[in-house]
Amino acid sequence: MDTIASLFSFITTPVSWVIVQFHSVYGAIFGPDTGWAWGLSIVSLVILIRICLIPLFVKQIKATRAMQTLQPEMKKIQERYKNDKQRQSEEMMKLYKETGTNPLSSCLPILAQSPFFFALYHVLNSIASNDTIGVINENLLQSAQKAHIVGAPLAVKFTDSASKVESLGATLTDVRVVTAVMIILMSASQFFTQRQLMTKNVDTTVKTPFMQQQKMLMYIFPVMFAVFGINFPVGVLVYWLTTNVWTMGQQMYVIRNNPTPGSKAQAEYLERLHKHVTHREKVSRRRDRVIVKAIVAKGRDRNEYERKFINGLSKAGLAAQTDGTVIKSEAAAAAQAEDGATATAGTPRRQQPKRQTKAQRQAGTVGGAKAAGEQEPKTSLTKSDEPEDAKPAAAAKKGGAKPAGGTRSKAQSGQRKGPQRPKSPSKK
Which value, in Å, is the radius of gyration of the alpha carbons in the chain? Predict the structure, then answer.
């Protein structure tokens, strides 16, 4: 660890200068030799660094979501070129270039913090070794060695010997208890942060290897913090615990206000947004308008939660527009919920004819026939009834005319086509 810290020695002077400036402020309030003055100086250093890293955190969020979106395509490439690793790598790089994504972007905040972390470790290690470093002179060195955080000196470790701990004015039991509690809190905060990401802010409709990797990291990172934490000075544990708490709070804010599409967090966000919009009949915040605009632009590609949100607006007599606003128009909202696209206000909804049952259709046909004066077909013949074919034949006999041999009678319903033999009339 000393070798790694020495690699970042170029930044120890700026880090030590920032700590000393914060110490001068807190020292005037709590006293220069107190653990509060030095501990809050380290906490303030973390906050300052994390504020400067907010743009990188935003890039990390975008990169993580882009990687989640590309997981199905990446899986196809892996299956297609599973026997050709070189071609697989080339296709992966081509996919990253076409989509403008970078797998390392999700690690930017951690990589950017690394120099400050190891520089702080180097500063605290020098304090424990009674060596001046950066802008920390002899007076500040003695003041830092006297500072205790809940009974543990600022520069001691869990693995330090009892003699070294006693030389700094503390007991080994106090140091072990304080460092153990801080390591547990540090690991627990890391686990909760990763678990929050996996349970609330992951698209549950897509199952990819990326999700499995994130689940593994959820358990691996806390173990790593626990293992390496026993070799960190108390001041470094304060630094790392503070940055974990900051990351957890920052992630909670992002998940609540800008969730991943298709995640549980999006369902909760859209439910809150629906209540807010239906109550005020408008989208008040600019951030909400951006999300509504993105949902409207998706059209038929909306996920389950987004369709539920649009349908809920339509039931409330509201319609989302392409600019992210909503208007009070029941017809436009109903049309939008039906076809998945934004409808123009005032457009009437097309009415579909109601499907009738078979009994209703038959009853309607019979009723129409009766209204037109048509007679219902007879089901049986009486003695007085004669076939229609027999009437022309009887008339021909009475008139003495013989039917022409070349003529053909027209085929009636239910009879064969062609010449028909006349039937004799029924006897009375």
Answer: 42
Q: For residue 239, how many C-alpha atoms fall within 13 Å in the half-sphere facing its CB?
A: 27
Q: Are 141 and 130 in contact (CB under 8 A)?
A: yes
**Positions in the chain whose pLDDT score sits under 50:** 333-334, 336, 339, 341-348, 368-414, 427-428
Residues 407-424: tens digit of each pLDDT: 444 444 445 555 555 555
Helix (H, G, I), strand (E, B) or coil at 326: strand
**CA pair distance 293, 246, nearest whole angstrom:** 31
163's CB contacts (< 8 A; 6+ apart) are none
Residue with tokens 């880090």: 15
What is the maximum span of the chain, computed from C-alpha positions, in angstroms? 149
CA dihedral over 249, 252, 258, 262, signed as positive or negative:
positive
- DSSP labels for 191-260? HHHHHHHHHHSS-TT---HHHHHHHHHHHHHHHHHHHHHTTS-HHHHHHHHHHHHHHHHHHHHHHHHSPP
The helix (run of H) or strand (run of E) holding residue 45 is: helix 35-52
Residue 326 β-bridge partners: 320
Residue spans of alpha helices (H) in 299-352: 304-315, 330-339
User: What are φ and ψ of residue 254, in 5° steps?
Assistant: -65, -45
CA–chain centroid gap for 117, Å, is 32
pLDDT, tens digit, 9 for 90 and up, residues 283-308: 888 888 888 888 888 888 788 888 99
Say how many residues make up the chain.
428
Burial of 398 (C-beta count, 10 Å sphere; 0-12/13-18/19+): exposed
Token readout for 124 is 């605290």
Instruction: For CA atoms 199, 203, 206, 209, give the dihedral sign.
Output: negative
Instruction: Report the pLDDT value the prediction gives residue 382, as an integer from 0 to 100.
Output: 42
Find tokens 């005037």 and name the residue. 28
- Distance, in Å, from the CA atom of 278 to the CA atom of 193, rounded to the nearest integer, reads 33
| E strand residue ranges, 133-197 | 148-149, 152-153
| DSSP code, position 286 | H
Check: CB of residue 281 under 8 Å from CB of residue 318: yes
Q: Which residues 6+ apart lie within 8 Å of 342 measured at CB?
A: 296, 319, 320, 321, 322, 336
Joined together, the tokens standing for residue 260 give 């991943």
